[in-house]
Amino acid sequence: MNIILLSGGSGKRLWPLSNEIRSKQFIKIFKNEDGYESMVQRVFRQIRKVDRNAKITVATSKTQVSALHNQLGEHVGISVEPCRRDTFPAIALASAYLHDIQGVSEDEAVVVCPVDPYVEDDYFEALNRLGKLAESGEANLVLMGIQPTYPSEKYGYIIPADHGEVSRVNTFKEKPDEKTARDYIAKGALWNGGVFAYQLRYLLNKAHELIDFTDYEDLYAKYDTLEKISFDYAVAEKEASIQVMRFAGAWKDLGTWNTLTEAMEDTSIGDAVMNDSCENVHVINELDVPVLCMGLKNVVVSASSEGILVSDKEQSSYIKPYVDQIHQQVMFADKSWGSFQVIDIEEESMTVKVTLNPGHSMNYHSHERRDEVWTVISGEGRTIVDGMEQPVKAGDVITMEAGCRHTIIADTELKVIEVQLGREISVHDKQKYELEG
Amino acid sequence: MNIILLSGGSGKRLWPLSNEIRSKQFIKIFKNEDGYESMVQRVFRQIRKVDRNAKITVATSKTQVSALHNQLGEHVGISVEPCRRDTFPAIALASAYLHDIQGVSEDEAVVVCPVDPYVEDDYFEALNRLGKLAESGEANLVLMGIQPTYPSEKYGYIIPADHGEVSRVNTFKEKPDEKTARDYIAKGALWNGGVFAYQLRYLLNKAHELIDFTDYEDLYAKYDTLEKISFDYAVAEKEASIQVMRFAGAWKDLGTWNTLTEAMEDTSIGDAVMNDSCENVHVINELDVPVLCMGLKNVVVSASSEGILVSDKEQSSYIKPYVDQIHQQVMFADKSWGSFQVIDIEEESMTVKVTLNPGHSMNYHSHERRDEVWTVISGEGRTIVDGMEQPVKAGDVITMEAGCRHTIIADTELKVIEVQLGREISVHDKQKYELEG
Alpha-carbon distance B50 to B70, whole Å? Predict the structure, then answer.
């Protein structure tokens, strides 16, 4: 199975655990044998279980590449969108990537699916069948239609021609009001979860019809000139040869705190104490200090180094405009080499804890407008400062003036307290270099 | 007016803003023209307003001396209890301190009052009158009786002989149940708020009667051998010549989050956002990141580097056993020279932000089992390391191996990131020295 996972943007609805850099699919909230896994880790594990040879490609923006490598390892296929241009350009680019870079044949089927459905293994078995349907060539496009469980106003609906397991699509309907949704469902309508399959040839032809490009490299180069347009609007709604396959298994869209906490196995993650009078309370605490809850009902508490949310569960779905008001420094991020956490901010300094995974290193870089001091607090590795390499271990201190080129290489897991000093500390003040030799 | 303010112990009921080191009276929660002031700062300001020449002595334990100097300046009178021995020994020690150290005459009156009543200026005018009554010598002991506003089970009651403004005391009653309290009040009973006045001679004689000591120094030296006994039990309940003066003004005991939030001028202190559907919600946030509240009713949220409390207001008075469960590192403290805040804890390191006030310095000290690295992040001053003095400014780094003697002196406000490195990091690993020269 070839599968493209569409990995969406910043998830303000799950603030403070998601931020501009960490989208909701990277929050580690699902219990497994080893601890906790994120949505994207869960989905990868589920796909591999159903098809251990599945070729998985994540279509996403540059900002998520580090987090993807951090959570999925170095060998995951990533189709990087140079900028955001909605789903049709993203799918066209990922399809060109599969063909031109990964060498997938035009006859093969490709399944497209969002990266963050909360589902069981039967969902991925259905994706496998969806791919086989597309490969059979009966229709140009095969959609997955999700059996509605309530008359939701949140989803678009697919109206099938009949009640068969697989049937032709009569028409699509935009997000309706509840009453209309009820009517659709009575007529056998299905939710459009944005899941579909096609033969690679079909999509590449569509892409060439709508966009003037030669190959993957060319499409990538001109990506910022493309029109923003959704796949539904550009392709699905205009396609005559189109089928829908019913899926009646469990399917949840965990987009808000309300729905996310329903999927939590325990009532709390992290250091939390609740008294007996708490009812239907969930706590997700990423801080090193305890959260104590007393006498609360239907409340979610979520704490990270970005901030603290305390919300009635129903109300939590209205969070976005309030988070938009909160303009703030990104306080933590997963990087391909490890992670960082801001632990103190002053007017002319910022203190950061940097954790490097064994065998990883930062880019070789310099800053124009800040000095830095590293104090190694655990582990062993090497620093390179202006071309000079030296071994470092816990207790060692490295001072770097503005302009000096530097990196650190972790031989074991390595933790460093980095003090940044200057009047204009900014993530944009960074020049990268190739390491000589 | 001579006034002894009794400053009590650790306030777990207001966790996470109070901790083992910071008692509730030091939490800055009351709005004034310059920002926020603590209970102890508010009381000092109010006393000075009523009597600018008042001689104020705080009776307290060693652990509060730094915080008192930090909040009230260097010149506040402090009678330090070497250990906790309940109110009678504390009042005896403070009275001996007034006589032997401060030179107060035996004829003068002394007013004793807890450091943390939430009151208006009329309360301190009443204290002034209480002192004058004691000075007149009509009775040995003059109590303030607070006019009850409800049949509280929290307070002891004073039963006066009549309904006069000042009257003889018939008897004392222990904390009653609500019904009994109602009966007492019907008979004109008053709350015993632990406020009283006496001529210094009276209390010194009582002290010599009950304790074998010569003077302040001697009492201080044998303080740990004294029996724990309350002033009410040792003195007040046995005294025949005793009056009570009614006080009908505003008086509140802000001992729980529920009562404390009632005294807040605004619904939040610190970085907080609430949506419109919040009702009767208070937020006190000492962290640098925002708290967002949505759809909450009758809730208090309090966040500090010790932890986060989210509680129904009524329930918040039952907090103590839950806080007792939370064994943790002290994460912040006010010191006489400034303050510190723990910003990161790892297995073999701890990172602390240290702020020194201008003109202040740490003790000259060393640690046996940890190395330290200071990175100055703002201000100017001097370090002394193993006897060598050198000027320091933002960006300077000082490394100190275990055993090395060191201090830092702030010429301006000085902020330092201190990384402690070692396997057994403990506040008890500290040896102090006199600075030579």
Answer: 23
